[in-house]
């Protein structure tokens, strides 16, 4: 743990939200977890599947030192942008057509986290944790320096927010690789080489480099 981050608020108590909650608890954070439902409706399930985490209302989760978005992407506009204003917000969401359906506001050539950042204009959105399966998140973490430690990419426009999230990802047991601005997160969305595989830090850095070179390469004539 570092950078004064003690409390992690998680919006979404599904597969990803509960996996992140358990890993964050193991790392020593205080974890608050919320859905769109009233607290009373999730208290028991949170106690059973994420023992040690506290079920709270979404507004209380949003007031944590770091907030993780683990809701289906098509629900992003139901998030309380005012409550999340001023917060560092980890976007772990992906567009998944069978669940999300058509989302006309998504723009070709733009990442979904950029769309989320537009909506959460007062927050510092940082993209990561979207390119690891929820099962893997609980099995692939290793202590720092382990030879088989997996790496995860971190992208966000606010450098200090990115630094906070790099520290969080490291605390969860992964080498955190700084990918730069939020737009660089397009390189680890579904359908990309990075999304499809597991990488160590060197391999991930190279894959990010290839993606950046591809993004800036002049169009073939
Ligand atoms: N499955 C994976 O391995 C994986 C890996 C990385 C990233 N992702 C991405 O992570 C996101 C979550 O996936 P998932 O599989 O965990 O989904 P899920 O199992 O369907 O869980 C979604 C959770 O979000 C809650 N929710 C919906 N609207 C909310 C709101 N406004 N505020 C707070 N909570 C809200 C739901 O609760 P209520 O509806 O009851 O409120 C539910 O607890 C998706 O975008 C997915 O693409 C998935």
Automatic annotation (TrEMBL):
SUPFAM superfamilies on file: NAD(P)-binding Rossmann-fold domains
Any Pfam family the entry gives: F420_oxidored
Record-annotated Pyrroline-5-carboxylate reductase catalytic N-terminal domain positions: 7-95
Keyword Isomerase annotated: no
Keyword vocabulary terms for this entry: Oxidoreductase
Record carries keyword Oxidoreductase: yes
The name this protein goes by in its record: NAD(P)-binding domain-containing protein
Organism: Sinomonas flava
Taxonomic lineage from the root: Bacteria, Bacillati, Actinomycetota, Actinomycetes, Micrococcales
């Amino acid at each position: 743990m570092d950078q004064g981050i003690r409390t992690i608020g998680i919006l979404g108590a599904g597969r990803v939200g509960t996996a992140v909650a358990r890993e964050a608890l193991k790392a020593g954070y205080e974890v608050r977890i919320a859905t769109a439902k009233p607290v009373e409706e999730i208290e028991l399930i949170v106690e059973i599947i994420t023992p040690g985490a506290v079920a709270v209302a979404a507004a209380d989760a949003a007031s944590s030192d770091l907030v993780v978005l683990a809701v289906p992407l098509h629900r992003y506009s139901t998030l309380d942008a005012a409550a999340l204003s001023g917060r560092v917000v980890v976007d772990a969401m992906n567009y998944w057509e069978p669940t999300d359906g058509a989302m006309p506001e998504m723009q070709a050539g733009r990442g979904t986290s950029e769309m989320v950042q537009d909506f959460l204009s007062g927050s510092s959105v940082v993209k990561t944790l979207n390119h690891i399966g929820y099962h893997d998140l609980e099995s692939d973490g290793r202590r720092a320096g382990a030879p088989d430690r997996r790496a995860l990419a971190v992208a966000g426009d606010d450098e200090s927010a990115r630094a906070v999230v790099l520290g969080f990802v490291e605390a969860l047991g992964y080498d955190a690789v700084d990918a730069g601005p939020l737009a660089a997160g397009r390189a680890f969305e579904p359908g990309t080489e990075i999304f499809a595989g597991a990488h160590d830090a060197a391999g991930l850095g190279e894959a990010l480099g290839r993606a950046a070179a591809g993004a800036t390469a002049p169009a073939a004539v």
